[in-house]
Fold each of these.
Amino acid sequence: MTLRKIAQVGHPILRETARHLSREELASEEVQSFIDDLVETMRDAQGAGLAAIQIYESISICAIEVGDNPRYPYKPKVPLTILVNPVIEELGDERFNNYEGCLSVPNLRGVVSRSMRIRIRAWDRHGNDIDEEIVGITAGTYQHEVDHLNGSLFLDRVTESKTLCTWDAFKRFYEAEFAESVRAIVERVGS
Ligand code: NI
C-alpha cells in the first residue's frame, strides 16, 4: 500500500465530477489496490472520510470510517465503509448544523447545513448493492464525502462566513457547544 498526497483547496481536480465505475473496472487489481491506498491515506491523515478525487483520482469512490479520532472526538463511530458510485437522496426536510473540516482545506472549519436523514445508494468495494437510510451526524459525513465526488467542498455550503475558524479557535470557542448539540442529535436519532 502507498500513502497518497492529498489535493488542497484551489487544485482544479477538487472541482471535477468523478467518473462512475463499471463493475469490471471496480473488480480490477488496479482499482482494488487503489481502494487500499485510499483507506491507508485516510487513516494516516486521521480523516473521518476521504474521496478518491482528493488523492488525484477522479473516480467515484469514497471511504468513511470513524473510530477514536482526535480530530473529531465527539463523532459517533462508523465502521469502515467504501462507497462506489454513491447517490444520495435527502429524506424529509429536517436539517441540522454541522461544524465541518476537510483534509483538503487546511486548518479551517465552518458550519454547514446538512440533511438529517438520507438514503444512500452505492456499491461496496466488491460491487454489492448498498441501499440504506443513514441519519444524524453520520449522514452529515456521508453528504460531505459524496459532495467531493460532485466537485463540491464544504466551503461552498458555509452560509455564515462568521462561523469560519481555525482548528485551534474551534477547540477554544466552539467545540464544547457543538459537542453538546452532537450528543443531543445522537440521543434523538441514534447516530
Ligand atoms: Ni473533505
Amino acid sequence: MIIAVDGPTASGKGTIAKALAAHFGLPHLDTGLLYRAVGRQCALNGGNADDPADALAACAFPDDLLADPELRSEATGGLASRVSVHPGVRQALFERQRAFATRPGGAVLDGRDIGTVIAPEAEAKLFVVASVPARAERRFREMQAAGRAVSLPEIAADLEARDARDRSRAEAPLVAAADAVLLDTSDLDRDAAIAAAIRIVEQAAQGR
Ligand code: C5P
C-alpha cells in the first residue's frame, strides 16, 4: 500500500507520516528533506537558489548531507522552497521518490505533491492542514527545544511566505489531490491527529 501524506509546513504531516509508517510497518520517506538538501548544497556551492542552473547543480548533493542537522533550520526550509520551484530540480528528484513509492510492499511518503505527481495511484491520500497560528506555535516550540533563537512573529511570516510560494508555483503546486482526505490538526494533539490519520488509512484500505 502506498500512503501519500501532503500538506503545508508544520501542519503535522511529518509526525503523522512517521507514525503511519510505524503503525503499518512501511518504510517512510520525508521528501522535504531532499529539497532541503538541494537548498543547503546550493548555498554551500555559493550558488543562488533562484537561479535554475545553480539549483540543478545542487541536486548532486552527497547522501551524507541528508544527516546534517542544519537541514532542519528555517533558513534551509526557505532555500528548499526557493529551489523547489525549478522544474529541473523537481525532475531530478522525481526518480528517487518514485522508486521509493513503488517499493514492493508499499511505502509512506510525505511532501507537497505525493498524491498528485509522485504517486497519483496511492491507495491512501491525506492532505494535512492546520491554521497559521497553530503551525507557528508548533514550529516555535520545536525551534526552542532545538536551542534555536527565533521569534513567533518571524516564524508566522516565514510560514506564510513559504505557503504562498508553494501554492503559487507553476510546477507541482501545493494542492490537495481530488481524492485526498483533508485532516485539520489545528485543534488536535499529537495522539489524536495520529489516531485520525490511522482511521483514514484503514478506511481507504477497506475501500480498495
Ligand atoms: O516539508 P518541508 O518543510 O521539509 O519542505 C521544505 C520545502 O521543500 C517546502 O517548502 C517545499 O517548497 C519543498 N517541497 C516540495 N515538494 C515536496 C516536499 C517539499 O516542493 N514533495
